[in-house]
Amino acid sequence: MFHTLPIKEWTHGKWAFRGSTVAGKGTCFLLPGLNVAFDVAQGFEEFTQISRFFITHGHMDHAAGIPYLISQRALAHVAAPTFYMPESMVQPMKNIISNWEKMEGYKYQYQLSPVRAGEKIMLRADLLVRPFTVYHRIPALGYTLFCRKKKLKAELRGLSGDRIRDLRKSGERVEEFWEEPEISFSGDTRIEFFDNNEVVRKSRILVMEVTYLDERKKVGEAREWGHVHLDELIPRLSQFEGEKILITHLSSRYKVLECEKILDKRVPQDLRQKIEVFPQS
Questions:
Q1: Mean pLDDT of 50-77
Q2: Which of 66, 140, 231, 264 could form a disulfide with 57 if both were Cys (CB 3.0 to 4.6 A apart)?
Q3: Within this chain, do residues 107 and 231 fall inside the same structural domain, yes or no?
Q4: Do the bridges between strand 111-115 and strand 82-86 make them parallel or antiparallel, or are there none, so unpaired?
Q5: Measured CA distances, 142 to 91, 185, 271 (Å)
Q6: Which strand (E) or helix (H) includes residue 82?
Q7: What percent of the chain has pLDDT over 70?
Q8: Which of 91, 115, 139 is the last residue of a domain?
Q9: What is the CATH number of the domain that holds 261?
Protein backbone atom coordinates (compact mmCIF):
# COMPACT_ATOMS: atom_id res chain seq x y z
CA MET A 1 0.00 0.00 0.00
CA PHE A 2 1.27 3.46 -0.84
CA HIS A 3 2.21 5.66 2.06
CA THR A 4 0.10 8.72 2.75
CA LEU A 5 2.63 11.41 1.92
CA PRO A 6 1.13 13.64 -0.77
CA ILE A 7 2.66 14.09 -4.20
CA LYS A 8 3.37 17.77 -4.79
CA GLU A 9 4.85 19.77 -7.67
CA TRP A 10 7.38 22.58 -7.87
CA THR A 11 8.55 24.37 -11.01
CA HIS A 12 11.27 26.79 -11.95
CA GLY A 13 11.80 27.87 -15.53
CA LYS A 14 11.64 24.84 -17.82
CA TRP A 15 12.09 22.36 -14.98
CA ALA A 16 9.34 20.71 -12.95
CA PHE A 17 9.59 18.31 -10.02
CA ARG A 18 6.92 15.99 -8.74
CA GLY A 19 7.39 14.12 -5.53
CA SER A 20 7.30 14.06 -1.79
CA THR A 21 9.82 14.69 0.96
CA VAL A 22 9.67 14.51 4.74
CA ALA A 23 12.71 13.46 6.75
CA GLY A 24 12.47 9.86 7.91
CA LYS A 25 9.17 9.25 6.12
CA GLY A 26 9.88 9.43 2.42
CA THR A 27 11.78 11.33 -0.26
CA CYS A 28 11.37 10.92 -4.02
CA PHE A 29 11.28 13.19 -7.04
CA LEU A 30 10.55 12.64 -10.70
CA LEU A 31 11.14 15.03 -13.59
CA PRO A 32 8.00 14.88 -15.78
CA GLY A 33 8.75 14.16 -19.42
CA LEU A 34 12.33 13.08 -18.76
CA ASN A 35 11.82 9.45 -17.63
CA VAL A 36 14.07 10.11 -14.63
CA ALA A 37 13.54 9.97 -10.87
CA PHE A 38 15.76 10.65 -7.87
CA ASP A 39 15.09 8.29 -4.96
CA VAL A 40 11.82 6.37 -4.64
CA ALA A 41 10.61 6.55 -1.01
CA GLN A 42 8.32 3.53 -0.46
CA GLY A 43 7.01 3.65 -4.01
CA PHE A 44 4.37 5.88 -5.62
CA GLU A 45 2.08 4.64 -8.37
CA GLU A 46 3.07 7.30 -10.87
CA PHE A 47 6.74 6.37 -10.41
CA THR A 48 5.99 3.05 -12.15
CA GLN A 49 6.03 5.06 -15.40
CA ILE A 50 9.74 5.81 -14.91
CA SER A 51 12.48 3.44 -16.07
CA ARG A 52 15.64 5.27 -14.85
CA PHE A 53 16.13 5.89 -11.15
CA PHE A 54 19.05 7.55 -9.40
CA ILE A 55 19.24 6.35 -5.80
CA THR A 56 21.28 8.35 -3.31
CA HIS A 57 21.59 5.81 -0.50
CA GLY A 58 20.03 2.78 1.14
CA HIS A 59 17.89 4.26 3.91
CA MET A 60 14.33 3.02 3.66
CA ASP A 61 12.73 6.45 3.34
CA HIS A 62 14.70 6.88 0.10
CA ALA A 63 14.98 3.37 -1.33
CA ALA A 64 12.39 0.98 0.12
CA GLY A 65 10.21 1.25 -3.00
CA ILE A 66 12.74 -0.35 -5.35
CA PRO A 67 11.35 -3.94 -5.19
CA TYR A 68 7.79 -2.65 -5.45
CA LEU A 69 8.52 -0.57 -8.55
CA ILE A 70 10.27 -3.51 -10.19
CA SER A 71 7.22 -5.65 -9.48
CA GLN A 72 4.76 -3.07 -10.80
CA ARG A 73 6.66 -2.55 -14.05
CA ALA A 74 6.74 -6.32 -14.54
CA LEU A 75 2.99 -6.47 -13.91
CA ALA A 76 2.47 -3.77 -16.55
CA HIS A 77 4.70 -5.63 -19.05
CA VAL A 78 6.92 -2.61 -19.64
CA ALA A 79 10.70 -2.40 -20.00
CA ALA A 80 12.83 -3.45 -17.06
CA PRO A 81 13.90 -0.47 -14.95
CA THR A 82 17.47 0.59 -14.22
CA PHE A 83 18.47 1.79 -10.77
CA TYR A 84 21.77 3.67 -10.48
CA MET A 85 23.12 3.54 -6.94
CA PRO A 86 26.25 3.49 -4.76
CA GLU A 87 28.24 0.30 -5.22
CA SER A 88 27.69 -0.75 -1.61
CA MET A 89 23.93 -0.96 -2.16
CA VAL A 90 23.93 -3.32 -5.11
CA GLN A 91 24.44 -6.73 -3.51
CA PRO A 92 22.20 -6.10 -0.47
CA MET A 93 19.43 -4.91 -2.78
CA LYS A 94 19.89 -7.95 -5.02
CA ASN A 95 19.48 -10.11 -1.94
CA ILE A 96 16.25 -8.31 -1.00
CA ILE A 97 14.82 -8.67 -4.49
CA SER A 98 15.87 -12.33 -4.63
CA ASN A 99 13.90 -13.01 -1.46
CA TRP A 100 10.86 -11.28 -2.92
CA GLU A 101 11.21 -13.43 -6.05
CA LYS A 102 11.20 -16.55 -3.87
CA MET A 103 8.12 -15.41 -1.96
CA GLU A 104 6.25 -14.40 -5.10
CA GLY A 105 7.41 -17.26 -7.31
CA TYR A 106 8.40 -14.91 -10.08
CA LYS A 107 11.72 -13.92 -11.69
CA TYR A 108 12.03 -10.16 -12.15
CA GLN A 109 13.88 -8.31 -14.86
CA TYR A 110 15.77 -5.26 -13.65
CA GLN A 111 19.21 -3.67 -13.57
CA LEU A 112 21.05 -2.39 -10.52
CA SER A 113 23.90 -0.30 -11.85
CA PRO A 114 26.72 0.63 -9.44
CA VAL A 115 28.08 4.13 -10.02
CA ARG A 116 30.89 6.23 -8.61
CA ALA A 117 31.38 9.97 -8.25
CA GLY A 118 32.35 11.57 -11.56
CA GLU A 119 31.00 8.86 -13.87
CA LYS A 120 28.96 9.94 -16.87
CA ILE A 121 25.49 8.49 -17.50
CA MET A 122 24.01 9.65 -20.80
CA LEU A 123 20.25 10.18 -20.86
CA ARG A 124 20.18 11.45 -24.41
CA ALA A 125 22.56 13.39 -26.68
CA ASP A 126 22.01 16.68 -24.85
CA LEU A 127 21.49 15.46 -21.26
CA LEU A 128 23.65 13.49 -18.87
CA VAL A 129 23.97 12.75 -15.17
CA ARG A 130 27.12 12.62 -13.06
CA PRO A 131 27.15 11.36 -9.46
CA PHE A 132 29.06 13.37 -6.86
CA THR A 133 30.41 12.73 -3.38
CA VAL A 134 28.23 13.46 -0.35
CA TYR A 135 28.79 12.89 3.35
CA HIS A 136 26.06 10.92 5.09
CA ARG A 137 26.10 8.25 7.84
CA ILE A 138 26.29 5.50 5.23
CA PRO A 139 27.74 5.44 1.69
CA ALA A 140 25.77 7.87 -0.45
CA LEU A 141 25.91 9.88 -3.65
CA GLY A 142 24.36 13.04 -5.00
CA TYR A 143 23.58 13.53 -8.70
CA THR A 144 23.91 16.44 -11.13
CA LEU A 145 21.91 16.69 -14.34
CA PHE A 146 23.89 18.49 -17.05
CA CYS A 147 22.82 19.96 -20.37
CA ARG A 148 25.41 19.09 -23.01
CA LYS A 149 25.89 21.90 -25.49
CA LYS A 150 28.03 22.42 -28.56
CA LYS A 151 29.37 25.22 -30.68
CA LEU A 152 31.73 25.69 -33.60
CA LYS A 153 35.38 25.66 -32.58
CA ALA A 154 36.72 29.16 -32.16
CA GLU A 155 39.49 28.68 -34.72
CA LEU A 156 36.95 27.70 -37.39
CA ARG A 157 34.62 30.64 -36.98
CA GLY A 158 34.59 32.80 -40.05
CA LEU A 159 35.06 29.88 -42.44
CA SER A 160 32.43 29.32 -45.10
CA GLY A 161 29.74 26.71 -44.63
CA ASP A 162 31.18 24.68 -47.50
CA ARG A 163 34.63 24.65 -45.90
CA ILE A 164 33.24 23.55 -42.54
CA ARG A 165 31.22 20.85 -44.25
CA ASP A 166 34.34 19.58 -46.04
CA LEU A 167 36.27 19.47 -42.78
CA ARG A 168 33.48 17.51 -41.14
CA LYS A 169 33.36 15.04 -44.03
CA SER A 170 37.11 14.54 -43.76
CA GLY A 171 36.66 13.39 -40.17
CA GLU A 172 37.86 16.52 -38.42
CA ARG A 173 35.91 17.52 -35.35
CA VAL A 174 34.56 20.99 -36.00
CA GLU A 175 32.57 21.47 -32.81
CA GLU A 176 33.44 21.66 -29.15
CA PHE A 177 31.21 20.47 -26.32
CA TRP A 178 30.68 21.66 -22.79
CA GLU A 179 28.40 20.72 -19.91
CA GLU A 180 26.22 23.15 -17.96
CA PRO A 181 24.94 21.97 -14.55
CA GLU A 182 21.17 22.35 -14.47
CA ILE A 183 20.02 20.42 -11.41
CA SER A 184 21.99 19.00 -8.49
CA PHE A 185 20.21 16.65 -6.10
CA SER A 186 22.07 16.23 -2.82
CA GLY A 187 20.18 13.45 -1.09
CA ASP A 188 21.05 13.22 2.61
CA THR A 189 24.41 14.73 3.48
CA ARG A 190 26.43 16.99 5.71
CA ILE A 191 27.22 20.50 4.43
CA GLU A 192 30.68 19.52 3.14
CA PHE A 193 29.13 18.45 -0.15
CA PHE A 194 28.49 22.14 -0.84
CA ASP A 195 31.96 23.27 0.16
CA ASN A 196 33.77 20.63 -1.88
CA ASN A 197 31.85 20.76 -5.16
CA GLU A 198 31.98 23.78 -7.46
CA VAL A 199 29.46 22.18 -9.83
CA VAL A 200 26.89 22.05 -7.02
CA ARG A 201 27.42 25.75 -6.31
CA LYS A 202 27.03 26.59 -10.01
CA SER A 203 23.91 24.48 -10.67
CA ARG A 204 20.86 26.35 -11.87
CA ILE A 205 18.77 24.50 -9.27
CA LEU A 206 20.16 22.85 -6.16
CA VAL A 207 17.71 20.38 -4.60
CA MET A 208 19.24 20.28 -1.15
CA GLU A 209 18.52 18.50 2.08
CA VAL A 210 18.13 20.94 4.99
CA THR A 211 16.53 18.93 7.77
CA TYR A 212 16.61 21.46 10.64
CA LEU A 213 15.95 25.18 10.63
CA ASP A 214 16.16 26.53 14.16
CA GLU A 215 17.24 26.02 17.76
CA ARG A 216 15.01 22.99 18.30
CA LYS A 217 17.91 20.98 16.87
CA LYS A 218 21.50 22.13 17.08
CA VAL A 219 24.10 21.93 14.30
CA GLY A 220 25.98 19.19 16.14
CA GLU A 221 22.87 17.04 16.31
CA ALA A 222 22.26 17.49 12.59
CA ARG A 223 25.84 16.56 11.78
CA GLU A 224 25.73 13.50 14.01
CA TRP A 225 22.98 12.08 11.81
CA GLY A 226 24.56 13.20 8.54
CA HIS A 227 22.23 16.13 7.83
CA VAL A 228 22.34 19.87 7.16
CA HIS A 229 21.15 22.63 9.50
CA LEU A 230 20.05 26.02 8.21
CA ASP A 231 22.72 27.59 10.42
CA GLU A 232 25.30 25.99 8.12
CA LEU A 233 23.66 27.07 4.87
CA ILE A 234 23.07 30.75 5.65
CA PRO A 235 26.75 31.82 5.73
CA ARG A 236 27.31 29.95 2.44
CA LEU A 237 24.38 31.34 0.48
CA SER A 238 26.43 34.07 -1.17
CA GLN A 239 28.65 31.34 -2.67
CA PHE A 240 25.73 29.83 -4.58
CA GLU A 241 25.91 31.03 -8.19
CA GLY A 242 22.74 29.38 -9.43
CA GLU A 243 19.13 30.55 -9.39
CA LYS A 244 17.33 28.49 -6.74
CA ILE A 245 18.05 26.31 -3.75
CA LEU A 246 15.07 24.04 -3.18
CA ILE A 247 15.00 22.88 0.44
CA THR A 248 13.89 19.28 0.95
CA HIS A 249 13.89 16.57 3.64
CA LEU A 250 12.61 18.89 6.36
CA SER A 251 11.91 17.39 9.75
CA SER A 252 8.23 16.59 10.23
CA ARG A 253 8.22 19.06 13.14
CA TYR A 254 8.08 21.90 10.58
CA LYS A 255 5.11 22.98 8.51
CA VAL A 256 5.72 24.78 5.22
CA LEU A 257 4.23 28.09 6.33
CA GLU A 258 6.32 27.96 9.48
CA CYS A 259 9.40 27.25 7.34
CA GLU A 260 8.73 30.29 5.21
CA LYS A 261 8.45 32.48 8.30
CA ILE A 262 11.71 31.11 9.68
CA LEU A 263 13.47 31.74 6.38
CA ASP A 264 12.03 35.27 6.16
CA LYS A 265 13.37 35.99 9.61
CA ARG A 266 16.76 34.33 9.40
CA VAL A 267 17.98 34.62 5.78
CA PRO A 268 19.46 37.98 4.67
CA GLN A 269 16.90 39.83 2.57
CA ASP A 270 19.15 40.12 -0.49
CA LEU A 271 19.55 36.32 -0.56
CA ARG A 272 16.07 35.24 0.48
CA GLN A 273 14.78 34.95 -3.09
CA LYS A 274 17.31 32.19 -3.75
CA ILE A 275 15.63 29.75 -1.35
CA GLU A 276 12.32 27.94 -1.72
CA VAL A 277 10.82 25.06 0.23
CA PHE A 278 9.39 22.03 -1.53
CA PRO A 279 5.73 21.82 -0.51
CA GLN A 280 5.07 19.08 2.05
CA SER A 281 1.37 19.40 2.75
A1: 95
A2: 140
A3: no
A4: parallel
A5: 20, 6, 24
A6: strand 82-86
A7: 93
A8: 115
A9: 3.60.15.10
